[in-house]
Amino acid sequence: MMFDWFQAINHGIDGSFLEKVREISKLFFKLPADEKKKYLREENDVEGYGNDMVLSENQTLDWTDRLYLTALPQDQQRLQFWPQNPTNFREILDEYSSKIQLVNEVVLKALARSLNLEEDCFLNQYGTTAKMQARFNYYPPCPWPEKVLGVKPHADGSAITVLLQDKEVEGLQLLKDDQWVGVPIVPDALTINVGDQIEIMSNGIFKSPVHRVFVNSKNERMTLAMFCMPQTEKDIGPVDGLITNERPRLYKNVTFTLDFFFKNYQQGRRPIDACRI
Ligand SMILES: O=C(O)CCC(=O)C(=O)O
Ligand SMILES: [Fe+2]
């Protein structure tokens, strides 16, 4: 199997800028609850500040606070959910998104070349605009760490996810050969994994890894996941060069909307299973 998760260093984003990104996240989560509530997610929406969408009484909630925002394209930003405080929040997130967009392009081209395909074959499925969702995750210390998870097992619905990990506190684990393996902290690295949409586009050659986050009783942890993907109105499917007699088409063409993703995810189903032929 090909790699599905790696740590990128020399990605072109300064350590000092990554610090600024961590800083706006921290300043936001440290605001008084009343102030954060101004950006509260609405009941049936994913964007904004809050926790899981509650879809059933049996659902286990994640031990986390998060702020979920559409970062790109800029004209789809819903600024009512963007913190006014810290005052440079928007400037920093905009700059970070455009830098991550470049990382996304480099990675998708490299993935294509590694399969001897034309380098734009994945990017061509993006349509006219790329989409990017930012998820700021805050995991408070937890008095019963063995009883809950920071994020329950899931795979990402993105094409790729670029994660800025906490500088000091580990928590991310990925399922490899039925074992949970910790993802270490590498200073100034970006942790990159493929999501369901690259699994589909690559006709299953790249696998969108299942991962989860554990919490601990002593330390809080903060991360920022950037979900990079094609514009959501556009359907995607396995690229032509990867459908052969030996390897028939494994996935349908689908329009991978956020709604489709979350309805499955919150009920403990993998959205990608709904895409298989
Ligand atoms: O916080 C982490 O380490 C990972 C978070 C994650 O998997 C996600 O936001 O999809
Ligand atoms: Fe994830």
TrEMBL record:
Coiled-coil intervals: none
InterPro entries: DIOX_N, IPNS-like_FE2OG_OXY, IPNS-like_sf, Oxoglu/Fe-dep_dioxygenase_dom, Plant_2OG-oxidoreductases
Domain Fe2OG dioxygenase residue range list: 128-230
Xref: Gene3D superfamilies: B-lactam Antibiotic, Isopenicillin N Synthase, Chain
PROSITE patterns: FE2OG_OXY
Keywords: Iron, Metal-binding, Oxidoreductase
One Pfam match: DIOX_N
UniProt key word Nucleotide-binding: no
UniProt-recorded name of the protein: 2-oxoglutarate (2OG) and Fe(II)-dependent oxygenase superfamily protein
Organism of derivation: Artemisia annua (Sweet wormwood)
